[in-house]
Design a protein that fits this description.
mainly alpha; metalloaminopeptidase activity; disordered N terminus; ERAP1-like_C_dom; Peptidase_M1_aminopeptidases
Length: 363
């Protein structure tokens, strides 16, 4: 445990030093860092209280990332500045920091998509580079293995690997698949095919299945539904609720709008429990968002009757409208629901879109 903590602590210190060297820290952040230094919490030597030091440091490192993202959203900082900051996290090893970075990366890509499709493609490639390097650092820190290919990233649990490392592998691979990294997609689909042939295969353990499912849906399209249909087969055959929700949460991310339409209709079928339907709506792809919005309007009477006016209905709607990021769409949504829901719900839905409005000033 002490060795793992020390490695993560040292890596986070290097991240902070990199940020300082590149002059990426605002004055207020530097003052906060100075206070930590004066308090002796960022000592270069490893001490018995390293767990506490690491906790303090990781909150600080995460705070820098969150603050920078918030500044970009508020137009106080350019998108280029945010991406430059993120590039300093390429060798970060901590699960909390990288998991937060993955969440932010999804948000950035969604917002960039509304600004410019070419920008979205470039940003996806940027994040692929970040997560490939992060994966290499994380998954080789306990054993000296070659991560030059995606196949190596999928290797099973290593000696002395922590639970957080196992979780991180799944999240990083899912992000790489979602951003269209070809090597990850190819390896994921190869392992999924092995899983179809043998549900007990060691090639696709539970913590990596979501990444494989996302990869399968990235390659699914109107002319080749085999991967999508195979996922539905797994869904129908499994008795595990967790596996069903894992599959449901991967389906709507397909970039083909016609497949997204099929997924949405499937979500309303008798094969999906009412309480699980919201999982099937999560992660609607940018390409499928207009289809999802039209579908929601067409099915609104049935949806309102089935889910009533409670918490699930709000989540149901938010899942469909959240991929949008423009004031025009926010106004359209608010007007549509103004006479169909309580005013408070209409305002909440409008705000959920406005938060995603493109507020970056591109350099």
């Amino acid at each position: 445990m002490e060795t793992i903590v020390k490695v993560a602590y040292d890596a986070s210190v290097k991240t902070v030093l990199t940020l300082l060297e590149k002059n990426l820290l605002p004055d207020v952040v530097i003052r906060r860092l100075t206070r930590l230094l004066l308090a002796g919490r960022l000592r270069s030597g490893y001490k018995p209280t390293a767990e506490l030091q690491l906790s303090d440091l990781l909150r600080f490192v995460n705070g820098i990332l969150d603050d920078s993202f918030a500044l970009s959203m508020a137009r106080q900082q350019s998108l280029a500045s945010l991406l430059t900051l993120i590039s300093a996290y390429k060798k970060e090893l901590d699960y909390t920091v990288l998991s937060n970075l993955i969440v932010i990366s999804y948000k950035v890509v969604k917002i960039a998509a509304d600004a410019n499709l070419e920008l979205m493609s470039g940003i996806k490639q940027f994040f692929i580079g970040v997560f490939q390097l992060a994966a290499g650092c994380c998954f080789t820190r306990l054993q000296n293995i070659d991560l030059s290919t995606a196949k190596e990233t999928w290797l099973g649990p290593k000696t002395r690997e922590s639970h957080l490392d196992a979780m991180l592998r799944g999240e990083v691979l899912t992000a790489l698949a979602a951003f269209g990294h070809d090597e990850t997609l190819n390896e994921a689909i190869r392992r999924f095919d092995a899983f179809l042939a043998d549900r007990n295969t060691s090639l696709l353990p539970p913590d990596l299945r979501r990444a494989a499912y996302v990869a399968v849906m990235q390659r699914a399209n109107k002319s080749d539904k085999s991967g999508y249909e195979s996922l539905l087969k797994v869904y129908r055959e499994t008795d595990l609720s967790q596996e069903k929700t894992r599959i449901l949460g991967s389906l709507a991310g397909c970039p083909d709008p016609s497949i997204v339409q099929d997924v949405l209709n499937f979500v309303l079928s008798d094969e999906v429990r009412n309480q699980d339907a919201v999982y099937g709506l999560s992660g609607v792809s940018w390409e499928g968002r207009e289809v999802a919005w039209k579908w929601l309007q067409e099915k609104w009477e049935f949806i309102e009757k089935t889910w009533g006016s409670g918490f699930l209905l709000t989540r149901f709607i938010s899942a469909v409208v959240s991929p949008f990021a423009s004031f025009e769409k926010a106004k359209e949504v608010e007007e549509y629901f103004a006479t169909r829901t309580k005013p408070s719900m209409a305002r909440t839905l409008k705000q959920s879109i406005e938060k995603r409005y493109r507020q970056f000033e591109d350099d």
